Structure formats: structure tokens, C-alpha cells
Amino acid sequence: MKRQVTGLILLLVLVAFLVWGMHLTHPFGYPGASDMDDYMIENAQEETGSNNVVAAVLFDYRLLDTLGEATILFTAVMGVLLLVRASKRKENNS
Amino acid sequence: MLSKIVRTVTNGFMPIIIIFGLYIIAHGHLTPGGGFQGGAVVVSGVVMLLVAFNSQELKKSLRERVLSIMESSGALIFIGLAFAGIGTVFAYNLLVGSPIFGHIPPTGPNPGDIWTGGVIPLMNFAVGLKVIAGLSAVVLALALFSSGEEVEE
After folding, report:
1. Among B49, B26, B44, B19, which residue's Cα sits nearest to residue B127?
2. What is the Cα–Cα distance from B89 to A80, expressed in whole angstroms?
3. Which residue(s) pair with B103 in the sheet?
4. Sign of the CA dihedral A18, A21, A23, A26?
5. Model confidence pLDDT, tens digit, residues B10-28
6. Could you report the predicted ipTM of this complex, rounded to two decimals?
7. Distance of residue B37 Cα from the nearest chain A Cα, in angstroms
8. Using one digit for the tens of pLDDT, what is the confidence trace for B77-102?
9. Distance from A90 to chain B by nearest Cα, in Å?
């Protein structure tokens, strides 16, 4: 019972924090959905030198997000290899 | 191991699939595609090999340790290139206008030039290396595991 009350309080604090944080960001619908697109379509070729604007966004403007994506792939591969090897070793020991 | 017809067709198709995947990776900054997509194309060829031959045969030529080293070096190239522009800001495209991949294309639709894009082609290469090695290692490890074979350390 005590743990459930503690969890409920933590959940309420988290929800309040998230709602408060949502109000601190830009108002809904701003900047307009096409502002960023227009900027990138107009300037990507001279700023990054890449004809493919999607590649320019992936590997130049939003490279930090691509780094996260690559980290996810790396972690997934590492996890699969570790699990397969560990289960194999356990089978051999028993 | 499947029949000789399947193995022969697989052997014939494998170079074409690898060349197509490498083409998609190398032209990532000009045409649709890039490191992830081209890497997935090459890995589909590896899966075809895995179906045609069995995993024991494939284990002799595809070493898991080599694949791990390839994937880690791809990740290191990626992060190194991202940190190379730290003088301005993290992940700054410092090669635009330089002698290496430095041409700037005219704005608007144009045929394209492979010697453009700054760090973007190099990043595509790093991500392609990472995807090829990583997904091949996963597929090979799972196939060896499900067939009860010894997974090489």
C-alpha cells in the first residue's frame, strides 16, 4: 500500500512536470509547419553542397539525431551478440 | 544446403547485389538512398547466401570478430567526423568549399556532381559500413544459434 501511494505521488509529480514543460515550449502550431521546410529546400544545396535534401537533413542539420539512431543500432547488435554467446556458454557448462 | 541450381544463381547474383548496394551508399548525397538503405541492400544479399548455403559454410568466410571490428570502425569514423567540426559547432560540415568533396552545386534541379556534399558522403560511407557489418553479424549469429552451432568468439 505504501509503495503504491509513493508510486502514485511520483507519477503525479512527473505528469505535472511534463504539463508545465509543455507550456514553456512554443505555442501549438508555431513555427508554421512549412517555414522550416522552405528554409531547408532553399538553402540546403548551397549550405551543405548536397543535391539530396533528405541526406542534407539527416547528416548535416539533424546529425545529432542520426548519431542517436546509429547508437541504437550499435546497442542492438551488441545486445544480440552478447545474448547469443552467453546462452551458448551456459549450455556448454551445464 | 539447397540444390546446385539455387547455389549457382546465388553466386551469380551476389556481386550484382553488392555493387548495387555500394552504388546506393556512394551516391547517397545525390540520389534517394544513403548509408542505411544501401547497407540493407547488401545485407539482403548476405541473407540470400545464408539461405542458399547453410550457416556453417558461411561461418568459414564471414568471421564475426572481423564484422565487429568493421562495425566499431564505422561508428568511430562517424563520431570522429562529427567531432571534426567542433571548432564551430558539433557536427559542423567543415568540408564544404574545401578541396575534398567541396564543390557546391547550383541551386535548383541539376544533374549532380559526385564531388560535392562535404562530410555527407563520408558519413554515408561510415553508416553503410556500420549497417553492413552490424546486421550481417546479427543475422549470422542468430542463424548459428538456431542451428545449434558454435558461435565464434
Report:
1. B26
2. 34
3. B116
4. negative
5. 999 999 999 999 999 999 9
6. 0.82
7. 12
8. 999 998 888 888 887 888 888 888 88
9. 12
Long-range CB pairs of B101-106, under 8 A, 24+ apart, other chains included:
B101/A49, B102/A49, B103/A49, B104/A45, B104/A46, B104/A49, B105/A45, B105/A49, B105/A51, B106/A45
- Where chain A has pLDDT below 70, the residues are 31-33, 88-91, 94
Using the structure block, give the residue that is written with the C-alpha cell 551456459.
A90
Which cell numbers hold the place of B90? 558539433
- Going by C-beta distance under 8 Å and a sequence separation of 6 or more, which residues neighbour residue B8? none
- Phi, psi dihedral angles at A7 (to 5 degrees): -65, -40
pLDDT of residue B152 exceeding 60: no
Q: Which residues, other chains included, contact A50 with Cβ-Cβ below 8 Å and sequence gap of 6+? A: A44, A56, A59, A60, B29, B30, B116, B117, B118, B120
- The per-residue pLDDT for A48 is 87
The dihedral formed by the CA atoms of B78, B81, B85 and B90, expressed in degrees to the nearest 10? 10
Contact residues on chain A for B151, CB-CB shorter than 8 A = 84-85, 88
